[in-house]
């Protein structure tokens, strides 16, 4: 076994590998960029080496620099994690030439599966079923357009070297094809350095089911059952679970054996995932093979009781597979939810900022248990524009799927993040969704249930407002008792319950809930608290306990009890609640209202950057006439393209940036003079 390994990655997966290595007594070396000097993975390892600037191309994608770090620290092997260099054939070859073990498959297997078109041709020869499509090398746009017309719409354009949903577009008609192809190729060249694409028939109710495989250098291979990854947005997985709901033993065996055949066809060694797309009638087709550990590997660990990183290390060290196929078993059901810094209400755009408050449910980390959290950031860390905005993976286990869903729902409600927008409330609604709960799964689930999963902003309930108001006044030293009998002092001037010589006390609080301003009055009359809202008086009492930055508050409003947790962050109050105080809500506080008034002048058709990024295309210039909804420019951020559209019809007055320019969050991009209405 190795005595020292270098982990050529960052964040959650680097911490995950370090955890297993530490348990096995293996020394670890971290590498880090300028942005990660104080990151969690640096502290998780025994030694660390600086490798460059924040952008991945200047650090985590520099194979020669990483190899030099391995040599300098005495590392015998390199674990690439996922992403970055994990599926880079040249890096795997370079490791071998340098006498450093690459903890992954042979370079030849990466090459065979790295090109989706070449892999499909190989699978076709091996007898693995394929979706109808075009996987050829000729990338002439006219030919690709003709092939798409031949296959029949809708079709999926997919970057041949891609992954993670990047470089993929669904095209519904021939008229849309050329524009979608150009966008797909731009994203592919930016993310992978290769703009080759393939085209496939897009199945209208497909499930995404993948098989975890392992192979050793002695020629043995097994499958560790399946994962269902059908719940996706922008072709990126949101929820993963194992086993796949409704999977029969016969179908599991067919898919597992097909996956093992695929691995053996390329001389595979190590951990790999063979991804299939399945139709409602049970037919399945090979999509691709990811020649690395997957983000969602914990759900397989939870149902098998195994440590897949340990398997990787043992196999890379030349040991045989720890178990045979007949010895592998599974128990229960596991679900993983990816907690992202993103705003589901704004097209899932990434949210950049500092995690000023992070509270997680009771859990284990990087090992199997009822509730598990795998993460690489902590409170005080920054979600930057340079890397994937995942905060953590929340994984739960239950004796059955229903219990796992219930545990996930509870764990999500107990997860509180302040400082960035997150998908926590969206994930909670997914757990409550009828289609998901009944396992009516396909890759279009989110879009088909958009109204329930991404509802329009609704006005905050009175219990939610009361919870924030009670916390606000508690932070000033007031208590929510409805008599003075609980006070220890007989001196009324020591009272903290709003006692006044006149017999009454009143304080006004304004809360901004989206575009809705609420004026609340907290008043105490004759020893009784009341909440006054919209000229109605409600009897009120409460208790509020501070826990660091959090206030755990229970209110009794008009005879009914409600609970919530409130965190003050600058000019905002973040409310985390369930039931009538429900979900996550962000309220503006009085200072914020004053600023809003100061800035309430009409800004016309000004457009600002929704996040830091780079301008990669422009469709307009000063003097052009545009209609509301017209595409104006395309920004690239976090390796994804984001179209900027006109918020109003009018004439472009000025364009402030050119193609290639970097822009900061909130920078004015374009000014439009609104058309007369």
UniProtKB/TrEMBL annotation:
The keyword Nucleotidyltransferase does not apply. PROSITE patterns: ATP_GRASP, BC, BIOTIN, BIOTINYL_LIPOYL, CPSASE_1, CPSASE_2. Pfam families: Biotin_carb_C (PF02785), Biotin_carb_N (PF00289), Biotin_lipoyl (PF00364), BT_MCC_alpha (PF21139), CPSase_L_D2 (PF02786). Residues 1-451 form the Biotin carboxylation domain. Residues 595-673 form the Lipoyl-binding domain. Keywords: ATP-binding, Biotin, Ligase, Nucleotide-binding, Transit peptide. SMART domains: Biotin_carb_C (SM00878), GARS_A (SM01209). SUPFAM superfamilies: Glutathione synthetase ATP-binding domain-like, PreATP-grasp domain, Rudiment single hybrid motif, Single hybrid motif. Residues 120-317 form the ATP-grasp domain. It comes from the Bacteria. Its cofactor is biotin. One of its GO terms (molecular function) is ligase activity. NCBIfam families: PRK08591.1. This is 3-methylcrotonyl-CoA carboxylase.
